[in-house]
Amino acid sequence: MGAAKETLGEEQPWAEVSPDAARRLLIAAVEAFAERGYHATTTRDIAGRAGMSPAALYIHYKTKEELLHRISRLGHEKALAVLRTAADGGGTAAERLADAVRSFVRWHAGHHMTARVVQYELDALGPEHRTEIVALRRKSDAAVREIINDGVRAGEFDVPDVPGTTLAVLSLCIDVARWFNTAGHRTPDEVGALYADLVLRMVGAEPGVAGAGAGAGVAG
Amino acid sequence: MGAAKETLGEEQPWAEVSPDAARRLLIAAVEAFAERGYHATTTRDIAGRAGMSPAALYIHYKTKEELLHRISRLGHEKALAVLRTAADGGGTAAERLADAVRSFVRWHAGHHMTARVVQYELDALGPEHRTEIVALRRKSDAAVREIINDGVRAGEFDVPDVPGTTLAVLSLCIDVARWFNTAGHRTPDEVGALYADLVLRMVGAEPGVAGAGAGAGVAG
DNA sequence: CACTTGCCTAAGCGCTTGCTCACCCGCAGG
DNA sequence: CCTGCGGGTGAGCAAGCGCTTAGGCAAGTG
Asked: What is the DSSP string of B127-184?
């Protein structure tokens, strides 16, 4: 019952980071940044969590900011991939929107530590890194807006303000990273299902048109 | 056109803070915390923005954390007051919910600097101050949940999961503080109207039941 | 064996941080 | 005039910060 330590869901996804010491440092940084924020986290803290001396960090990363950049980029790429998989899947616009919201929310809840860093520590990045990440965000926005536009064109949705509604839908999903595991005892799957339903209502889709639809895991 | 510097809407609300120097410091702190975050803001920066020497801050506030606490408490109290005014107003549940969301969102957009600090710098508070603020938050949650429960009882709303939907509604409103004036050219009134409509859809209210409803200003 | 290479540490440098302290100034009361 | 007092400053302290440097140690290669 309840959310497991996330470690199970968090240790495999960073498999692309090597060598092993660099990955351990990155995981330690994700935890520290998520708990206390980037600026309140010291390099000594990160190294300590990874079981290393402070200097070890600088063998694998040039600066503390580079660590945040790596986390932010990888995290955004994964979240975007999850979104696009659903967006490019088959089915009606309602089905695709429900699928997108369900998996996007599931990712944010299941990886809420990573998601929190990715979504809320953006301002701590340097200017160039920041603009790079903002570009990735715009792609997420475009993916959602496209589905909603499709639904409007097909007559499935009733949406007076498409950009505004797109913004609200994404905002709703992203904010999951802030409150998840701070507020309650829901599983990522439950939150994903609830939010998919709420979003279908927001766009005025016919009730029950894309209701159930399980789906595999949280994905990497 | 567009959002004025917020200064107009921000300088009067802090009228309850005295003496004048203490208020200037507090306003400077709100700006700095909102722009860069609590931990990235230095006491020298705050004092500088207020046109004072670094030491002047400690005449009016014991610590930097006390400044954040003051901002957080006053901000939460104001936001809660705005919410309750709408919640305790007359009318159907749909009307009250729309009113609550509209004014709550309008406050978050109109005072987005204060709101950002209030909503996103909570973890920077010390333990006791933090729990005090969390208690205020629960009251906001209760206010919204009560309206939704009323609507369900009256048969106005169709809400399978009341706690979950309450959480989502508040989450949606709060996140306005994150993206407002970073994303676009909407006025607080426009965002409030859009969000009130979206929330009515989320709870399955009859369309057009609490549609227009202007309302005065953003309130203090 | 000697020598290189990759990973890691102990020590610490230069700087900034939150905060303090001794002192100063304008002004009201006597 | 002097005195006291609330509000202000300049200088600076102790601590902690991000990051560097010199060196150690185990494994791989001739």
From this structure: HHHHHHHHHHHHHHHHHHHHHHHHHHHTTS---S-HHHHHHHHHHHHHTHHHHTTTS-
